[in-house]
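G., the chain you wanted modeled:
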Amino acid sequence: MALPVSVSGHGLAAGFRDTALFAPRRVALLADPAFPASSILARNLAAGGFKGQLHAVGPVWPGLNHAATLEDLGEPPDLGVLCLPPEALETAMAGLAARGCFATVVIGAAPGLAAICARTGVRALGEHSFGLCIPPAGLNASLSHIAPRPGRLALLCQSSALARAVIDWAEGEAVGFTLIAGIGTNADYGFAGGLDWLARDAGTGAILLDLRRIKDRRRFISAARAAGRTRPVVAQRPGHAGREVADAVMGAALRRAGVLRVQGLEDLLSAAETLARVKPSLRAGPDGMRGDRIAIVANGLGPGQMAADAALRGGGRLAVIPPDARAMLDLALPGGWSGENPLALPMGEGHRLAEAAALLSAVLTVDSVVAIHAPAEEDPAVAAEALAAAASASGRGGRAAPVLAAWLGQATADQQRRILGARGVAVFATPEAAVRGALHLAQDRRNRAAAAELPPSDVLEVTPDRARVASLFAAVRAEGRLALDEAEALDVLDAYGFATVAHRTATTLDRAVAAAEELGWPVVLKVLSEELPAKTEVGGVVLDLRDAASLRAAASMVTARLAADRPGLRPRGWMLQRQAAVGEEVRLRLADDPMFGPWIGFGRGGTAAGIDADEAHDLPPLNRALALAMIGRTRMARLLDGWRDHPPVPREWLADALVRLSQLAVDFPEVAEVIINPLRAGPGGVVALDANFRLRPAGEVSFLAIPPYPAELTGSFTARDGRTAVIRPIRPEDAKGIAAFVRRVSPEDVRYRFFNRLRELPPAQVARLTQIDYDREMAFAAVDGGMIAGTARLVLDQAGGGEFAILVDAAWKGTGLARHMMGRLVEWGRSKGLRHIAGQVLADNAPMLRFVRAIGFATRRTEDPEVLEAYLDLGGG
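Predicted structure as tokens:
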């Protein structure tokens, strides 16, 4: 098809805006009638009730305003929807760009789409996009068979088939959407951009992600974390059967972002049903944020027991009903009840299901209630209406436990489920599905709490000998190798503060005997070769050698075995190690995932490490809190607490080892793989016995999915009165210090900074201020003798600018600290290419207004008469 477009255009100012994609006012369809998808798009666009303007360029489509060419459009479209042959795409996109349109949805095949976008400056959802639905605006530019209704759920998906399945399910459940965006193959505009938009959309209550390919690992995690701070984000990723490590790394990445991971379509729809309708309780129980204490009430014992079994199998707990709540239930349920959890109502008392659920919802030891109704000789409509009212009441204020319903049956139950769904109740067809919904609530609560966790203030200061490691790596490369031998690997660990077992190397047997005498008997003999990462598999390790004769005999045996099994192998010599004390053997790994980059593994060590799949995964950088959580996710963590004649091992020792390995990954992106196995942990400490290192080819480096702490931005400040302070980026461990700092400053300064008379910052806000995404914002802390004396923050926005905020302790006012910190912010902003910096200042904050004007900011009014904006043009971009 020859599309009638012109690339000469009007030369309007170029630039993609996400509002053009997700909140367009004018949409143009450019489609080839030969493609079946084109007529579907035209039909859906015309029938959607879009509140803006709809145009079709070229062919005539019923219900769309016709324009022969792009030039014939009175105003340029905000969004172009393209369903064209691949050879026509670049011409169409260039024509749109010439008219000032830089947002598109590409429905079909588009080989080289990323390159086309780069050449034309146009951003695209696609290729093979399902399309774009914005139900609140009546826009349906998709291949959907049903017009999605407005609601509070958002879906970003790569699979068109899955999108149709979710939309079909949603229609049956009366669930609506704020946005459905088909990412397609994620060739250009992808998940990160969509998540950034949804993070700012107050109408979106929960976000579903269908993940297959993540293009920009760092932007994705950053955007998912930003979105997940204010609403649940749920993700599923199919196609990973048999790739357990890659799947585990995906889980680690989502966990760090605070995203709920589910498995399969059924789980995804269950999570959607729950999170789209249920407001999680704000109640914090005595065990923190686990949120998994489930109370079950049913109008029959059997379904209640099935739900209880499902709760325990899924890792949840049956809530304990305290005596005062039992007494309340006795009074409210004169017909009687089972007296235990699950609560079973007697026959004919199903109409009291709602009353019992409401009472349980108010019990402080209950995190969620599952109410189950089985068909009975009673009017189900009465029970459903009462339960809908009880579930609605449980969602008010956030202090009561949410109520989820299981309405069993089909012939008589389907209508009641529809009624409950229309009333906003999370309702399921089986007890197991309802319990799964409750467990999703609990897991989402834990994930988001962990993402906002306030770690302790102690920081493991890793001070490695980087020069020594760099020299060693250079020497290995000079020999044409990428793999280190064991002695070299242990030297690297030693430079990073790992305790390593005393060892010596020898090129001859006589020198090996002398080395053993120097170390002291008994010793371990190992063949030294970078070609043997698993020396035990070829008999290359002999333990407990107690004299020279046994060492010579062992060496002779190893040499003969290698000659027979590996005739081409040329060992570098021998390594002798002092025999280490007994202890628990663990394995630490650093490796690379194609999608998320470097990852770290912790689990069982020794020769059985590859058989017993007991390993937790996370992404560097790690701090102690993250490392301890990682250890706690393994089964062997229980062994570290001690058992029978095995004394306990402090987990902090192993956490320190993980942090050191993480710092190695940050410092040397040229490292491709590290295996420390075994790392032996006993009452006397943790010691590395063996390690393998492999470097990347020259010029190849890794890229962390999570930006590391920018220690290079640390500096010092000397005040006019001679006092000094350290100026450094804020880190999560500053949480306690930031909270104390805000308590210390005057109430008026707190009002000026936060526009509120806070006496103390809530934990969620402290987490937000200290857990910095260093690619999106910078926050400097001025530290005076361990106490924070001031903070300055610059948050990047979507328009190439940044918003600043600053707060300084009264004792440091007038010293030049505020001016110095603002200068650091401006310098960092320029390094990011910002065009301007702005900040909101209360109109009665005379000291701040004098300060910003003195350092070159202009001030101007805003729509709020009580707020001025301070603005500094940086001239970047």
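The two ends are 38 Å apart (CA to CA).

Shout if anything looks off.
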